[in-house]
Amino acid sequence: MPRFVITRTARAALCIAALAAGSLAGAAETVKIAFIEVLSGPFAQTGMGSLNQLRDVVSQLNASSGPQDPKFEVVPFDGKGTPQESTNVLRSAYDQNIHYVTQGGGSGVAFALVDAINKQTRRDPNSAMVYLNYSAMDPGLTNDKCNFWHFRFYPSSEMKIEALSSYLQGKPEVKKVFLLNQNYTHGQQTAKAARAYLAKKRPDIEIVGEQYVPIATVRDFAPYVTSIASSGADTVITSNWGSDLGLLLKAARDYGLNINFYTMNANNPGIPTQMGSWGADKVGVIWNWGSNAPTPELEKIAVAYKDKYGEDFIYAAHWNSMHMLREAMRQAKSTDPKKVAFALEGMKYKSPMGEIEMRKDDHQLQAPLYLGIWAKKGSPGVKYEAERTGYGFRSEKVWSPAESMQPTTCQMERPPA
């Protein structure tokens, strides 16, 4: 008799859990989000800065949630910037019953996470995890390697190069370009896109050099800067990030290299400090937002964050991903990953940057792009400085979603609704 009572009780508990799993259980429910990022080693400053800003966005979001909304909790995992370690901690996250993941530091890691989530879900459909990509840019993630569980809230490298090449059509003084990128999939795709788009829009530009940097390995970039100077380049296009970008710009500053650098990450933590006055009017960053952009709501958030933590707020993708995730849960009336994923794809959302859309075809966010040019605080368009340098990025150019939109080759395989 006691054995029967225990079994019946256990079954009842399982039934209750099953009924609750796919529905919003009210204010008491907590949805954990695994943050898998580089939290140790030379790129840790970038990862920790992103983590702090995600936590702040989530804190504000929880404070504004309604009684039927779940609360979000960020759980950090150190992926150490490697595909193997990142997939290891992904399994740890799943073991902790976490079904939402966010990552952005490195497209090589992003491909590994997509593959691991896809294999895991095929083995066990109940193990599904929704992957919110906040900055891994390789175009393959939304083309041949697209996946139902992956959503990118950040422009691809092709979208950025499309925008940059259009901008360079109005810069006839740019005649010789040097391509310097990290030696992994994202850097290789950036160089490929730069060659293709420059040939199409500025065929007169000469590519005078192309080099690849072993990621997170080089401590002295002086030889690379010497190569750039010897090539006669007037412009460098680089997708480097983390210490690989900071040390490159430091070496260029120490050399006194007076040419343009168009980057994808010069506003990352620690990079502005490396530039100082040397970078004025020569270093640009193509990003999904900038603190001096005409976006009053995000401006308030950035000012409040800096007042509170003394750091610059740069990860607008966290704002978009977390708000759209909550809205998807509201529409699905569920926190079940599959239901939420179906609600998220195709969603249009009014963000501080205007209306944005998670394109259903490939799960690539369609949103404005911004070009910031490093300039002295107080000069036209530079209200806010970065890292107390006395300089900041003026909003040089804003592209609408339609202007940077790219076609996709994605053939999305979807689970049964």
Overview of the molecule:
The protein is of the alpha/beta class and 417 residues long. The protein folds into two domains: 198 residues, 3-Layer(aba) Sandwich (Rossmann fold), CATH 3.40.50.2300; 172 residues, Response regulator (Rossmann fold). 41% of the residues lie in helices and 20% in strands. It contains 13 helices and 15 strands. Helix 3 crosses helix 4. The protein is globular and about 55 Å long. It starts with a helix and ends in a 13-residue tail after the last helix. The N terminus is likely disordered.
Unreliable runs = 1-27
**Major sheet details:** 7 strands, mixed
Number of domains: 2
CATH architectural name of the largest domain: 3-Layer(aba) Sandwich
Which secondary-structure class do the elements indicate?
Answer: alpha/beta
Radius of gyration of CA atoms, rounded to a whole number: 22 Å
